């Protein structure tokens, strides 16, 4: 539960639909429409997407995280909507990021896994990203942070609609450095990885070779992001701030290291909170608060194998690297003061792919020409009675395995092999990982409303629900494919090939 009670605002216009609001309570400035019409959004806003790396559902203070404190993120949540059923597309870096930028399930566009420095695929430049489509509308576009969709030009952000980029091509653990920060033997697999380089535009500008170097990243990205806001305050802009943390190896700058009294993970979380505060202060100082949508979320759940250097799932099952809810359900906050009023909590199902069509609709920009999987959330956000744009979600993992289907409150999981953290040996400590472990998963039906931890199989009691979800799964298998049942999708597009 959140550390502080959230302020709930009800107007008389909401009273007739309290039953609906018990499922999705949105505290909005705009009045709910009973005739099914969505209220038109105001003038074209700026958009800031802050994407964390491996932040779990239970890591923020306003989602139950402790004993560190995140007052700036708490304030952001209090100024907007906090989502409780928000899903990343997959529980791994590259696949997840492709969905945020394209509005597609990763498998539709040929993306899977986390790209290593030797990866032979990249996001296809023919895909229309949110940055490219907003740029076509006249927005200035900037990215700071981790890209992880192609490690070298022409597969870096400038070729996908961004006017500027400062960051890393992939995760900062892809470097020839051991878990304790010492150089690795170059004869080992990890020791053969190339030196990690910070890139500006398409050009490497310096190396990241030590944990002290990694400790500069949060501040560096924050300062560049606030500079981008100031530089573009007189024109619409899209800012994508993709922080390196709290992905391992954890590293906090001197101004935060040891200050949280909650270990290194707490220090990192409080520095992330500082970063959000700097963004919000910059918007306020430049008169941009009411004309800027801020979205704060994560690429996937916590990498639990790192023990006390990992976050937590808030009681959801498993974590990163799995198709259980602990790997895919992540925190998400959306703030737009003056349009979305304060203190909202939305329990409706929402997915990362939905951000692209929602933002493009609000910003009056063109939609992608090719098919996407996201849905426009504006009817839900603007308070249309009984609006529920998304009612199902497909849990894909590994290369292209459909491991589960959710519809409403029900989740059906299919027989497969899954990574698990349910063994003591799978959990490490102080930056060192545990040993990889796997389990056999059997067909099972869970009710996520009453059993969010996915512990009680109800398939015998509800055979009709099993049949309904199986039919939905067959639809995805036909369209997107499924390695578990040896099916090739009819509506998939290839990733780019990297030479």
From TrEMBL:
- Mind telling me which Pfam families this protein's record contains? Sulfatase, Sulfatase_C
Q: Which UniProt keywords apply?
A: Hydrolase
Please list every transmembrane segment annotated in the UniProt record, as residue ranges: none
E.C. no: 3.1.6.8
Question: Which residue ranges does the record assign to the Sulfatase N-terminal domain?
Answer: 45-362
Q: Say yes or no: keyword Iron-sulfur present.
A: no
Instruction: Name the InterPro entries for this protein.
Output: Alkaline_phosphatase_core_sf, Sulfatase, Sulfatase_N
Q: In terms of domain of life, where is this protein from?
A: Bacteria
A GO MF label: cerebroside-sulfatase activity
Which protein, by its recorded name, is this? Cerebroside-sulfatase
Q: Which family does it belong to?
A: Belongs to the sulfatase family.
């Amino acid at each position: 539960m959140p550390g502080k009670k959230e302020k709930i605002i009800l107007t008389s216009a909401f009273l007739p639909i309290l039953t609906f609001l018990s499922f999705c309570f949105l505290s909005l400035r705009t009045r709910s429409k009973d005739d099914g019409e969505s209220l038109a959004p105001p003038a074209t806003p700026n958009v800031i997407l802050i994407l964390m790396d491996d932040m779990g559902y239970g890591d923020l203070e306003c989602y139950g995280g402790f004993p560190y404190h995140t007052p700036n993120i708490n304030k952001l949540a209090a100024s907007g909507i906090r989502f409780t059923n928000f899903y990343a597309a997959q529980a791994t870096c590259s696949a997840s990021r492709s969905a945020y930028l394209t509005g597609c399930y990763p498998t539709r566009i040929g993306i899977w896994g986390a790209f290593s420095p030797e990866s032979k695929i990249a996001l296809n430049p023919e895909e229309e990203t949110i940055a490219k489509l907003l740029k076509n509308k006249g927005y200035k576009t900037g990215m700071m942070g981790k890209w992880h969709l192609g490690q070298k030009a022409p597969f870096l952000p400038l070729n996908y609609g961004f006017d500027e980029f400062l960051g890393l091509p992939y995760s900062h653990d892809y470097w020839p450095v051991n878990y304790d920060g010492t150089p690795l033997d170059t004869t080992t697999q990890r020791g053969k990885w190339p030196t990690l380089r910070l890139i500006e535009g398409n050009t490497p500008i310096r190396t990241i070779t030590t944990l002290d170097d990694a400790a500069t990243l949060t501040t560096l990205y924050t300062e560049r992001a606030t500079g981008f806001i100031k530089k573009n305050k007189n024109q619409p802009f899209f800012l994508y701030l993709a922080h390196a943390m709290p992905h391992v190896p954890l590293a906090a700058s001197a101004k935060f290291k040891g200050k949280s009294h909650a270990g290194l993970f707490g220090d990192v979380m409080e520095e992330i909170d500082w970063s959000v505060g700097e963004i919000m202060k910059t918007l306020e100082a430049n008169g941009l608060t009411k004309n800027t949508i801020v979205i704060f979320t994560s690429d996937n759940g916590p990498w639990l194998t790192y023990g006390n250097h990992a976050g937590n799932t808030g009681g959801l099952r498993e974590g990163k690297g799995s198709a259980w809810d602990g790997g895919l359900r992540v925190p998400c906050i959306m703030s737009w003061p003056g349009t979305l009023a304060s203190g909202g909590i939305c329990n409706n199902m929402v997915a990362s792919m939905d951000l692209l069509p929602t933002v493009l609709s609000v910003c009056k920009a063109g939609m992608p020409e090719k098919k996407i999987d996201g849905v426009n959330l504006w009817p839900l956000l603007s308070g249309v009675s009984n609006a529920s744009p998304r009612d199902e979600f497909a849990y894909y993992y590994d290369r292209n395995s459909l491991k589960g289907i959710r519809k409403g409150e029900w989740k059906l999981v299919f027989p497969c092999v899954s990574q698990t953290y349910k063994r003591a040996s799978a959990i490490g400590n102080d930056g060192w990982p545990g040993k990889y472990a796997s389990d056999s998963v059997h067909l099972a039906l869970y009710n996520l409303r009453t059993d969010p931890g996915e512990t009680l199989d109800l398939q015998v009691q509800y055979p009709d629900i099993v049949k309904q979800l199986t039919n939905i799964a067959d639809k995805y298998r036909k369209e997107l494919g499924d390695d578990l049942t040896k099916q090739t999708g009819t509506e998939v597009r290839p990733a780019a090939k990297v030479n």
